[in-house]
Amino acid sequence: MANEKFTKLNFETRTQDLERIEFDEILNDVKPIIFDTNFLFVTFEFKLDVVYEIERLIGKSHTFYIYEGTISEILNIERKGAKNKKFLPLISTMLHRYNFKVIKSDQKYIDDQLVENLDDRVIIATNDKELRHKIWDSANKVIYMRQTSYLELK
User: Fold this and answer.
1) What sign results for the dihedral spanned by CA atoms 23, 17, 65, 56?
2) What pLDDT score was predicted for residue 1?
3) Is residue 82 part of a domain?
4) Are 118 and 31 in contact (CB under 8 A)?
5) What is the pLDDT of residue 8?
6) Is 138 exposed, middle or buried (CB count within 10 Å of its CB: 0-12, 13-18, 19+)?
7) Which end of the chain is more exposed for a tag (fewer CB within 10 A), N or C?
8) 124, 144 Cβ separation under 8 angstroms
9) C-alpha separations of 104 from 69, 101, 110 in Å
10) Nearest-angstrom CA–CA distance, 53 and 68
11) CATH code where residue 66 lies
12) What is the residue range of 133's domain?
């Protein structure tokens, strides 16, 4: 055992086995929730039990999603060595534990993708103030953090 080599896996390697689907497929799921990149990080930065909070807001029937571009954004954080890099193993674990599905996309900028594919059956989870207002202007629902201690649905 002492001679076994352990390889350090990067975020991309740790997320390759997540199921990839087309956006239209999520519309058949019960309460689809798409996480924005920053929402994944604030969950751990403020030690918020995001799953408990989401279940408090909408119940236990839901499906979690991220866009492929979210993985790209996280890979940039990993490459740059940003301070939030320490949360990547936790985010990777969360994506697997809660069966996140990855929405196929060729866009790298997630905010544009989220606004472009708005649907009243989909809830967006983001803490980005500008993005929240764009989504609300389209009369869609957003889950966001309030006072760094709980989530709100509006």
Assistant:
1) positive
2) 46
3) yes
4) no
5) 56
6) exposed
7) N
8) no
9) 8, 9, 12
10) 25
11) 3.40.50.1010
12) 35-153
| Domain contains 122 | yes
User: How does pLDDT run across 23-73, given as a tens digit for each residue?
Assistant: 999 998 889 999 999 999 988 999 999 999 999 999 999 999 999 999 988
Residue 89 lies in a domain: yes
pLDDT per residue as tens digits for the range 120-132 = 899 999 999 999 9
Q: Which amino acid is at 86?
A: K
DSSP per position, the chain: -TT---PPPPHHHHHTTSPEE-HHHHTTSSSEEEEPHHHHHHHHHTT--HHHHHHHHH-S--EEEEEHHHHHHHHHHHHHT-GGGGGHHHHHHHHHHTT-EEE--S-S-HHHHHHHT--TT-EEE---HHHHHHHHHTT-EEEEEETTTEEEE-
Domain count, the chain: 1
Of 66, 57, 55, residue with least CA distance to 92: 66
What's the predicted TM-score (pTM) here? 0.90
7 has a pLDDT exceeding 60: no
Is 139 or 135 the better-scoring residue by pLDDT? 135
Q: For residue range 69-110, list pLDDT tens digits in order.
A: 999 888 888 888 777 888 999 999 999 999 999 999 887 788
